[in-house]
Amino acid sequence: xxxxxxxxxxxxxxxxxxxxxxxxxxxxxxxxxxxxxxxxxxxxxxxxxxxxxxxxxxxxxxxxxxxxxxxxxxxxxxxxxxxxxxxxxxxxxxxxxxxxxxxxxxxxxxxxxxxxxxxxxxxxxxxxxxxxxxxxxxxxxxxxxxxxxxxxxxxxxxxxxxxxxxxxxxxxxxxxxxxxxxxxxxxxxxxxxxxxxxxxxxxxxxxxxxxxxxxxxxxxxxxxxxxxxxxxxxxxxxxxxxxxxxxxxxxxxxxxxxxxxxxxxxxxxxxxxxxxxxxxxxxxxxxxxxxxxxxxxxxxxxxxxxxxxxxxxxxxxxxxxxxxxxxxxxxxxxxxxxxxxxxxxxxxxxxxxxxxxxxxxxxxxxxxxxxxxxxxxxxxxxxxxxxxxxxxxxxxxxxxxxxxxxxxxxxx
Length: 412
Description:
Layout: H1 3-11, H2 15-41, H3 55-66, H4 68-84, H5 91-114, H6 116-143, H7 150-175, H8 178-212, H9 222-241, H10 248-264, H11 274-303, H12 313-337, H13 347-369, H14 373-398
Helix pairs in contact: 2-3, 2-4, 2-5, 2-14, 3-8, 4-6, 4-12, 5-6, 6-7, 7-8, 8-9, 8-11, 8-12, 9-10, 10-11, 11-12, 12-13, 13-14
């Protein structure tokens, strides 16, 4: 038997394999590119010339649409059938979706040197792959007979909003509409990523906790989820409108709800199981991040818009502390469980977890403390380095599971 064909068959045997590997590679590539760009801008490393797109916008796009979605689709491809007792996602959907999305990311990188037309072609490829993946999930959602589809309904709508956000990026690239770029950046966070991560947390954290913590009482009020989703959308709408001084009207209740859930879900009891603790600590970052947003908005409200306290600290507390930590905690569980390994966080997983907490602090604290710009630049560089030092060992540990057969000999 051809070893290459066997490897490809193993690799494409389950949807999480192809998507998670693409996300893992992109998690290294995008931060490595960002580190090189930062070092050149700060005069520490080589100058690589001028990109066709401002690097900060490229960084935002690659993280929002070129990093997290691979893991999100891999996770939802796995969970939708179990959530709704639906049919499994067929390879005829997830393999083309993976190839188109991965190819689109490559073209996006090439376009940063070759030109905006190549970059736009990359976005179109990504949208095509995203559309196939979304269609596969919609088939399960529509055809499954489970009576409770509330969680998948929210994540499906959020995925549609994410696809529209990519469309905004494409529209900006081809027609130079600034509002379309703003929609891509703002909508990607508040209409796509945050609703997905809050909904998955609401569904899975109490469930996983009940399997590990003795005498655990599942607390999962749906009205709190609806409140948090309304607040997320409300924040995004006000940000799009430039009404930053009024975002606290949505941020305060969202922060309070997240912090109360953090307590009710038992973060103080989760440390008995390190893999579970990753999820609880990640969710704790949500309450912290939105509290920072609320404080910043109140300061702007009281000062007439003249005080911008924390810079990008709230954004990175949200995207690294909550999104990245939660995502890789969930992905670690899925990878271990679906490769036939025990659900145990070993040393490598612990290094990744604590490393990402350090990355979050390195990216957040300088803005919070408003230190000198020169020191901020070094902290940004160090944050990127620690990301790679934490993430690369995680990839080397988990990635082989995506092209090897399951350890327990089962299919999938």
